[in-house]
Amino acid sequence: MLGLFNDFASKATKAALNGLGKRQELISNNIANADTPMYQAMNIEFERALNTASRSREGQLPLQATVSNAHHMSPLTAEMTPKVTRRADSSMRLDGNNVDVDMEMTRLAETNLLYQTMTQIETKKLSLIRALTGR
Predict the structure, then answer these.
(1) What is the mean pLDDT of residues 125-131?
(2) Please, what is the Cα angle at 47 between 44 and 50, to 5 degrees?
C-alpha cells in the first residue's frame, strides 16, 4: 500500500502542490508590495524542474541517480526543487518597482485554478484507493 503513495506521480503531485503554494505566497507578497519603492517582483519556477524529473524518470535523460540509503533525499525530489527568481519580464516604474497588479492578479487566479485541479486529482486518487481496499 505504501508504494501507491510513494510513486513518481505522487511525488510529482506533491512537488507541484508545494510549488503552487509557494507561488501563491510570492504573488501575494508581490501584490502587497505593489507600492513599495525599489521592490522587485518575485517568481518561482518549478515546472521545468518537474518536466526534467519526469523525462529522467522516463529514461529520456542519460544520467539517473539512485538512492543508496532510505534516509537520503530521492534524486527525483531533489530535481523538483523550485527556483525563486526576481521577475524581469515587466517594466520598471520610476520608483524602481516592477509589480503589475493586474498581471499578478491574473497569475494568482491561474495558480489557484491549477492548485484546485491538483488537489482534485489527488482526492480522486485517494477515493479510488479507498474503494479498491474496501475502506
Answers:
(1) 88
(2) 125
**What residue spans define the domains of the chain?**
2-133
What is the pLDDT of the chain when averaged over all its residues? 81
User: At residue 3, does pLDDT exceed 80?
Assistant: no
- CA angle 110-84-67, nearest 5°? 105
Answer yes or no: is pLDDT of 39 > 70.
Answer: yes
Contact 77, 49 (CB under 8 A): no
> How far, CA to CA in Å, does 45 sit from each of 50, 62, 93?
10, 23, 24
**Nearest CA to 119 among 16, 28, 26?**
16
Angle among Cα 88, 91, 95 to the nearest 5 degrees reads 105
Q: What is the C-alpha separation between 41 and 69, in angstroms, rounded?
A: 39
How many Cβ atoms from other residues are within 10 Å of residue 104's Cβ?
Answer: 21
Length of the chain: 135
Enter the C-alpha cell of residue 10: 505522487
**Mean pLDDT on 24-50:** 92
DSSP 3-state assignment of 69? Answer: coil
